């Protein structure tokens, strides 16, 4: 069974990236170096199984392997996975979904918050908003809040929704990059 970490709730430097944000950092050598250096300043990084799957192209059925640009995309995904390893990103629990081949029965996934049960449920529902293409965003945002991490995102829509419900749990990508260069 893969280890699942529980971040210290009072540690203010717990971060979880959405997949686009970690990919952007991995594509910039200076940002990558600063991210690695941030470990010595108490920054701690976390990830969900959902992000591991996204970065491995699962389930990206649109990836066209005969197209040269698809291989570039795979290289970028590998850079992001390697960066998560370098910053010792630990896996945290996330909610289970009913998407095909998504739920893992290893004890690392939790029951989703029941509809109407409060701010966390409202946030998840608003992110999904009837479009199940947004479910991975909802899983990542819920995991960040549930596990006392700050979510780093370059997705304006997700930022707006999470910020409305949990303003202390999210940073815009550029805000986080500025924080990385502040020490």
* Uncertain stretches: none
Total number of domains = 1
Distance between termini?
Answer: 37 Å
Percent of residues in helices comes to 40-55%
β-strand amount: 5-15%
What's the Cα radius of gyration?
16 Å
Could you characterize what this model shows?
The protein is built from 8 helices and 7 strands, in the order E-H-H-E-H-H-E-E-E-H-H-E-H-E-H. A 5-stranded parallel sheet has the order 3-2-1-6-7. The protein has a two-stranded parallel ribbon with strand order 4-5. Helix 1 packs across helix 4 (68-86), helix 5 runs antiparallel to helix 6 and helix 5 runs antiparallel to helix 7 (156-165). The longest helix is centred in the middle third of the chain and has 19 residues, at 68-86. The mean pLDDT is 83. Helix 7 (156-165) links the parallel strand 6 (150-153) and strand 7 (170-172). It has a single domain (14-180), classed as 5'-nuclease (Rossmann fold, 3-Layer(aba) Sandwich). With 183 residues, it is α/β, with parallel strands linked by helices.
Summarize the model shown:
With 183 residues, the chain is an alpha/beta fold. The protein has eight helices and seven strands.
Short descriptors:
183 residues; alpha/beta; Rossmann fold
